Amino acid sequence: MRRPFIVSTMCGTLILLAGAPALAADPIATDSHGTKGPDRRIGAVAKVRYTSSGGPAKGGTITSVDPNWTPPPCWYAPEWKATEFRDFRNRLYFTARHDPDAPDGALKDMSDENRSYAEDDYNIDKEKDGMWWGAQFSPDATVAEQAKCNKPPFWVENGETPDVPNVISPEILAGLAYKQITVPGTKVSLAPGGASKVNLPTWAWLDKGEFKPVSVTAELDAGPLHIEATTTAKPVSLTIKPGTDDAELLPASGTCEINDDGSIGEPYAKGKAGRTPPCGVVYERSSGQGTYDLRATATWEITWEGTGGAQGTLPNGEYGNDQPVKVEEIQSVNR
Prior knowledge:
Order of helices and strands: EEEEEEHHEHEHEEEEEEEEEEEEE
Mean pLDDT: 84
Distance between the termini: 78 Å
Shape: elongated
Low-confidence stretches: 1-43
Number of strands: 21
Radius of gyration: 27 Å
């Protein structure tokens, strides 16, 4: 089966070709290329590696509360030594030449590109002085997002930072690490036990230790370049939605702040029936034969720090779960 791949031309447009097997990239794998392009295994040393600290064995990834922010879809990073780049370009041309589905003009564009690179013999005489940089793409980047990094491969001397947009940086790595953060689920404890009762408080809480900071470090090593960033998610609150409009939230905002010990809310115990819980809900109508879907969503504050003392913040993240809640009327006893 033919699979599409994308290459950039000297004029900066994107040419769609078919035929070469694309490398699939696991979003948590050590190779972050996700390149929808020809086999880049010749060289291709720009690998972003991820390590996690404090994350749960099971959970889910956070979603930004800012709908206008997404993790970086593409970036430029060191990929090839000079001889590796020459071999890659030759292989790319060979693939296109033997692809009957290649668009008109694609072969000529590649030939012109290779001729331009060959004028300086692909900088092979500078093999130890620098590297060829190329565009890298997030595995789920759309074609439109990939167009943001349509600059052809370019040569960069060791120790220099190219003056082009989307060059790999601690901030970009922080955004990539954000995408890898896994946080625990938010199934809350509810009490009193059994079905909740109409017009009586249902206590909700999460024990301490269940929610603690989670960090992911993204780092890149390519030749003499080492760059990294650690993104940390810190739990700050839990928001409850009762699953029905016929309910009163406690507190009224539905947002329960995290306690100093890392717990949320307060566990129910005998003797507390007459008290108002710091985190909970009062259902005002029975759920009948069914249940209400109570949703508990944790909010995580996101900060990062990286190479050279760089640091900053990213939009808060959210992750939540639904859980069924049976609500019954209080049974009266006639004597």
